[in-house]
Amino acid sequence: MHILVVGNMGYIGPVVVRHMRTRFPDARIVGYDSSLFGQSLTTRGPLPEVFLDAQYFGDVRDLPATVLEGVDVVIHLAAISNDPMGNRFEAATEAINRDASIKVAEAAARAGVGHFVFASSCSVYGCAAGAPRTETDPVEPLTAYARSKIETERALQKADRGDMIVTCLRFATACGFSARLRLDLVLNDFVASALTTGEIVVLSDGTPWRPLIHVRDMARAIEWAMLRTGEPMLVINAGSDTWNYTVRDLAEAVAAQLPGTTVSINTAAPPDRRSYKVDFSLMAELAPDHLPRMTLNAAIGELIDGLQGIGFADREFRQSPLIRLHALAGMMEDGRLSHDLRWVA
To answer: Given 163, 212, 252, 304, which residue has the most CB atoms within 10 angstroms?
Structure first.
């Protein structure tokens, strides 16, 4: 088996690559990445790329057809990956998240790739009061990031896919430790804040709902998607019904594992429209052996151990490169990165 992971040097990629190497030790696994966040390491171990057979460097907007030769599976993770980055770099978000994703999928189909796995997002549901959202419910993307994901899904449905099986995994919000950890994700932020300041400050009133999924469970869902048969085009919520939590729930769960942590809720905050519960029953039906296994408490404990293991003690971490927007801003200020997020020679 020949697996290409596009966008392997971000937060999720190192976990996915290691999982695939463990599950498929004889596979040829290669990565393709522009390395925007290659130096954002949070490990004292070897570089995550040691588990690859080859690493190609390049912008996803320019992925050459030769990289797809002989590939059986494309795992497409490359994206400007959250709302603050999407809002600041809206044009680049459209070009990378949507246009490049479609271009890569079409090139993969022409190259005879068997499976294309696209990392989509439950954020497409946006503001969704009431019952948990299923794949057939209306979507309401509120941000450039969310719009880029639903627009890519729709384009993939219309594209000439040939015999290639396409799976769009609408992932819940990611969490958990990684060799390239992000701290601009709600649970990861709460753990980092509790560790360094002894306090968790919830900027909303704590009532918004968030579905979460651990990065290792994301890798397991991707494994299922790249091996599945049947429907040639599938959009599916990836997560677990047990992982629908309010923001207050998450803060209190972190505080419970770090005694002495205080939780401050801004009860006067205006409503956060990004609130939704998600129904993961289709995943449970189609992929019962690949449902999430991690628990919230285990994910929190792992984050605590991982951060302590690298000596993390930065009280100002929200201004650090562990926040992806600040990493990009720093590279732009240094003149290394253009506003369209291309490296400056």
So the answer is: 212
Nearest to 204 by CA among 109, 140, 270: 270
Closest CA to 277 of 303, 297, 256, 249: 249
Query: Which runs of consecutive H residues, i.e. helices, occur in 167-295?
Result: 186-197, 215-227, 247-257, 281-286
Laid out side by side, the sheet with 244-246 consists of 173-175, 209-214, 244-246
Distance CA 122, CA 149 (A): 9
275: confidence class by pLDDT, cuts 50, 70, 90: confident
Cβ burial 263-291 (10 Å sphere, 16+ → b, else e)? bebeeeeeebebbbbbbbebbeeebeebb
Fold for the domain defined by 2-181+213-244+276-294+325-333: Rossmann fold (3.40.50)
Q: Is the pTM of this model over 0.85?
A: yes
Place of tokens 């690298």: 310
Which residues are 171's β-sheet partners? 121, 238
Tokens of 70: 């002989």
pLDDT of residue 271: 65
Q: Return all residues near 278 (Cβ < 8 A) that are at least 6 apart.
A: 122, 125, 132, 133, 170, 172, 211, 237, 239, 244
44 token code pair: 């004292």
